[in-house]
Design goal:
Layout (H helix, E strand, L loop, with lengths): L6 H16 L11 E7 L7 E9 L6 E5 L17 E8 L7 E5 L2 E5 L4 E9 L14 E4 L2 E4 L1 H4 L2 E2 L7 E6 L5 E3 L10 E4 L2 H5 L3 E4 L2 E7 L2 E9 L5 H19 L7 E8 L8 E4 L3 E7 L10 H11 L31 H18 L5 H15 L10 H7 L10 H21 L6 H13 L10 H9 L4 H7 L8 H7 L2 E12 L2 E5 L5 E6 L4 H5 L6 E5 L2 E2 L3 H10 L8 E8 L2 E8 L1 E12 L5 H11 L2
Parallel strand pairs: 1-11, 16-17, 17-19
Antiparallel strand pairs: 1-2, 2-7, 3-6, 3-10, 4-7, 5-6, 8-9, 9-14, 11-13, 12-14, 15-16, 18-19, 20-27, 21-22, 23-24, 23-25, 25-26
Helix pairs in contact: 4-5, 5-6, 6-7, 6-9, 6-16, 7-9, 10-11
The protein binds zinc ion.
């Protein structure tokens, strides 16, 4: 069908596109054909961006196909970003609008394309498939900021993705723009060697803070858009350690400069947070948190995780995961690879492991992270039903980013077990370190790719040991993870002991407005004796109210700061009336599990643990 331009959108579109036209200029950057984009963000209150793709020196046939990606590499969800394009205007050399037909949500066929000069279009805000916004892969446009992943905004003409690109941004007064492909910090211009590089550099515009830091001789930019004031120095210090820990493994930083884009929001209890890796940058949507504790924060693991992706899979390519050899990414079709577990699980294993090995996090924090994964793995009904390989293949059809979670839990544990397997089978001559370094030599530095269905053969060939039985059990198969046996080989053990813990006996969870409502009161508990009732809203505990949000949540959910036998005062709202209830903090006995260095470990297990984890 052919779209007609109408209604309110039309006025906005024409205004944005008219202003784009005045900024057109001829680039002296490229000698041959190239694509230039103008992104007009001067009217963020409209919730739209005006984008123009200009063709320079490109010869087209009678028809051309204008495309917007259907998915974003690394984000895996098949979002079909074309659905958020509000209107398109293919414009000829003489200024005429050319006829076109939309063939699918992300592809438009332009007729009489020989005379096509540019395509102007409007981009709206995007959401994920569930209508939510997992910021890093979507687009936010409002008077406070504009953020977008390149796949959501930059279209391409089919067959011309290999051309170099440049971008010119038009910003509201007082705004700045940042991305990994900017010409210089705070420049309104960006340059990419091809389309893959262009869309692999997310863009933040607004009034953010920006700090530059040189790490190992290379420029690193910290671009921070935070809802609350904070000190960036602790964040930069820990990131400095993370970058160096990764450098020690690969003996390289494979970029000229790197940009961290942080969007830090006031924590909401039931929110999803996330981050997305890119070729020379990463984007984070995270709670602000306490920056003095950043070393122990979830953010530490997340930064390390995204940074490891620089190699796996951004440079160590499988054929489908963006290798140049294979024509780059296919942005229009779902990606079916059995190796997401390796891309995500191995990455998450290294995220924490490199930090403990380099003493950025404590052995205790590392072991607690392992224990958490071990307890979560049992909570997923798929553990013994669906293999990691099958979960990987199915991910292309996922409707929710939550389906990623097993890769960070089971995938991470299997990656650690594979490391231990490689070490023990090779008499400690080969390890996951050696595997990744060799894969980087073979498939990272050469631009070649490993066949997506041959990962096991790659591991066998590079390591010279037979890991097929392991692979059959834990990657292709659904055997329960025999984690105790693997722990033994590195001098760790899973222990369990009875522990007395503080307990009051009410369970209060936040509703959508973050009011904590009591859902359950345990009979005969201290809470029952105090008179707490199901349906009460907790207003304060021992004088700590919702104004001290983090403390309040910790006290209500986990009784933090209370000791057995302490007096406690809980103020609840019941039927709109505040009621003060008094009682004592009770106790209960629980089985407390821990992963600990084993006191009976033999010499080789202890040596292996020291080499892997640094303790
Ligand atoms: Zn990841």
């Amino acid at each position: 069908m052919t779209y007609s331009f109408r209604s309110v959108l039309c006025a906005v579109a024409l205004a944005l596109i008219a202003s784009c036209a005045t900024t057109e200029k001829v680039s002296k950057r490229f000698s041959g054909a190239f694509v230039s984009y103008t992104v007009d963000a001067t009217k963020p209150e409209t919730g739209t961006l005006g984008v123009t793709l200009h063709l320079n020196g490109v010869k087209l046939g009678d028809e051309a196909f204008f495309c917007i990606p259907a998915w974003a590499p690394g984000a895996y969800q098949f979002i079909e970003y074309g659905k958020f394009i509000k209107a398109i205007y293919p414009i000829a050399e003489n200024g005429d609008t050319l006829p076109y037909a939309q063939l699918s949500s992300c592809v438009w066929q332009i007729q009489k394309a020989k005379s096509l000069k540019k395509v102007s279009y409007l981009v709206g805000e995007t959401t994920d498939l569930k209508g939510g916004v997992l910021w890093v892969e979507t687009t936010e446009i409002n008077p406070n900021r504009v953020y977008f992943n390149g796949t959501n905004v930059f279209g391409y003409i089919n067959g011309f993705k290999q051309l170099p690109c440049e971008v010119n941004y038009k910003l509201p007064m007082g705004w700045k723009v940042a991305s990994a492909i900017e010409v210089a910090p705070n420049s309104n211009e960006a340059v990419a060697s091809d389309y893959d590089e262009l869309v692999d550099a997310p863009v933040l515009m607004g009034k953010f803070e920006r700090v530059e830091s040189i790490i190992l001789g290379k420029p690193h930019s910290f671009v921070i858009d935070s809802d609350e004031p904070f000190r960036a120095d602790s964040l930069i210090k820990v990131t400095d350690e993370i970058v160096k820990a990764h450098y020690r493994l690969f003996s390289e930083l494979p970029y000229k400069k790197y940009v961290f884009l942080f969007r830090l929001v006031r924590p909401k209890f039931l929110s999803s947070y996330g981050a997305l890796e890119h070729r020379n940058s990463s984007a984070y949507f995270m709670p602000v948190g306490d920056w003095r504790k950043v070393r122990y924060d979830q953010l530490t693991n997340t930064i390390s995780h995204e940074f490891f992706h620089l190699w796996n899979p951004k440079r160590i390519h499988g054929t489908l995961l963006g290798s140049k050899e294979n024509g780059g990414f296919d942005y229009q079709n779902r990606l079916y690879t059995p190796n997401i577990w390796f891309v995500e699980g191995m990455t998450d294993y290294y995220a924490d492991m490199l930090l403990v090995r380099n003493r950025t996090i404590s052995p205790q924090a590392f072991l607690d992270g392992l224990l958490q994964r071990l307890s979560y793995v049992k909570m997923f009904p798929t553990e013994n039903v669906e293999s990691l390989e099958s979960l990987s293949l199915r991910l292309a059809n996922t409707e929710s980013s939550e389906e990623m979670i097993p890769f960070y839990i089971k995938g991470t544990l299997v990656a650690m077990m594979l490391d231990i397997e490689l070490r023990t089978l090779s008499d400690d001559r080969f390890s996951a370190d050696s595997l990744l370094i060799k894969m980087n030599e073979a498939f990272g530095k050469t631009g070649k790719a490993y066949p997506e269905d041959s990962l096991i053969y790659v591991i066998q060939t590079l390591s010279g040991v037979d890991v097929m039985p392991f692979y059959a059990k834990y990657v292709i198969g659904t055997d329960s993870l025999d984690i105790q046996r693997y722990f033994e080989k590195v001098g760790l053990e899973l222990t369990s002991r009875d522990e007395e813990t503080v307990f009051i006996g009410y369970l209060a969870l936040p509703d959508t407005a973050d009011n904590f409502i009591v859902g359950f009161v345990m009979p005969n508990s201290e809470a029952a004796k105090m008179g707490v009732q199901s349906g009460d809203e907790i207003l304060s505990v021992d004088g700590i109210g919702k104004d001290k949000k983090e403390q309040f949540v910790q006290r209500v959910m986990f009784y933090e700061g209370q000791k057995v036998g302490d007096s406690t005062t809980v103020v609840v709202s019941r039927g709109g009336e505040p009621i003060t209830l008094r009682g004592k903090v009770g106790k209960r006995s629980i089985k407390k599990q821990a992963i600990e260095p084993s006191t009976t470990a033999n010499e080789s297990a202890r040596r292996r643990r020291l080499e892997m984890f640094g303790f």
